Inverse folding.
């Protein structure tokens, strides 16, 4: 499939990032949301937000991470570290990913003359936006100043526990790791697992933790469904989308290269370090000028999204005011609320900047 013509920024290391842009609204004072996508689904997954942006006096810019839709692939050496590096090598790699994405965002801010910016990670994209946050000591001084001046809010949107280095509860399940999923020839392939993952992550789950009155607020992992037995009244988001249209917003080839390994237990310690530095080290918040940090998540997501939210809520509570985060639970929303109810999604994003 031909790569669509998208605006791009080029860093001095010959690394390019492509992005989509809703354009500036008809007002001088507006908020720009810069969104970073997750596993498999690239910037195209946010396309329904764009037409709503100008009437809401906001701007929506969606960056394609490396390997996706015209952005620069990783080198063989970098992919080797993803797949088999030790913790020190992977920590260095992820700091570099954070620096590169930060410089990309700085370039977009400069070229588009943006004012106030909210940086948003969605799904696995949270690992990378938190790496941006954690990378500030490694940025050039001029870049720090420009980013500090513009980025006023960081938003975590539907991070699964695997994107935050959080240990699984008993009996976890994610189709990406299920080697019993076979293709039409009876072989377990990344493509077959990726397609089954798509059905799973697009579904609406009816977790007892949110649907049964007596269990609300319990934060008990036993009240989270692992597999789809959920809400038959709400089919998966893209169940009736023509396959060519789905292909315009996904890339099934990236997972096995670098994305899936990032969510596996061997990477947990590295990712946990990013989360600790970004969210729970006061020096990081201070270096960014004490921005707002918000966390939005849908209650009909797969189990690993509420599991992550509960974990971070508990850590914020234990930090006793030293790591403020506002939480915004979205009743009835699945992982693709930006597609099924784009007005609600944009409304919660805007609310996160005001809380």
């Amino acid at each position: 499939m031909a790569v669509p013509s998208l605006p791009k920024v080029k860093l001095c290391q010959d690394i390019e990032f492509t992005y989509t842009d809703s354009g500036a609204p008809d007002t001088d004072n507006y908020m720009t949301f810069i969104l970073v996508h997750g596993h498999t689904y690239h910037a195209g997954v946010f396309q329904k937000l764009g037409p709503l942006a100008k009437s809401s006096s906001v701007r929506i810019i969606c960056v394609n991470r490396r390997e996706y839709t015209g952005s620069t692939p990783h080198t063989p050496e970098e992919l080797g570290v993803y797949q088999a590096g030790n913790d020190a090598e992977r920590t260095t790699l992820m700091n570099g990913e954070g620096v590169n994405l930060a410089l990309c965002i700085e370039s977009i801010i400069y070229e588009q003359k943006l004012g106030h910016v909210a940086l948003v990670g969605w799904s696995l994209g949270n690992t990378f936006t938190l790496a941006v946050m954690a990378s500030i000591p490694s940025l050039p001084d001029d870049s720090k100043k420009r980013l500090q001046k513009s980025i006023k809010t960081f938003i975590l949107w539907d991070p699964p526990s695997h994107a935050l280095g959080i240990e699984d509860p008993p009996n976890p399940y994610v189709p990406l790791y299920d080697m019993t999923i076979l293709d039409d020839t009876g072989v377990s392939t990344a493509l077959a697992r990726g397609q089954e993952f798509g059905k799973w992550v697009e579904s609406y789950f009816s977790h007892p933790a949110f649907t049964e009155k007596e269990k609300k607020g319990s934060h008990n992992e036993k009240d989270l469904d692992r597999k789809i037995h959920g809400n038959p009244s709400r089919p998966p988001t893209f169940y009736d989308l023509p396959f060519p249209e789905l292909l315009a917003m996904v890339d099934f080839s990236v997972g096995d290269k670098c994305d899936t390994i990032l969510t596996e237990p061997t990477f947990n310690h590295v990712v946990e370090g990013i989360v600790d530095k970004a969210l729970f080290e006061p020096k990081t918040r201070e270096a960014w000028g004490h921005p707002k940090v918000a966390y939005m998540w849908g209650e009909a997501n797969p189990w690993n999204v509420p599991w992550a939210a509960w974990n971070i809520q508990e850590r914020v509570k234990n930090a006793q005011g030293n790591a403020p985060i506002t939480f915004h639970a979205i009743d009835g929303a699945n992982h693709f609320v930006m597609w099924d109810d784009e007005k609600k999604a944009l409304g919660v994003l805007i609310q996160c900047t005001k809380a």
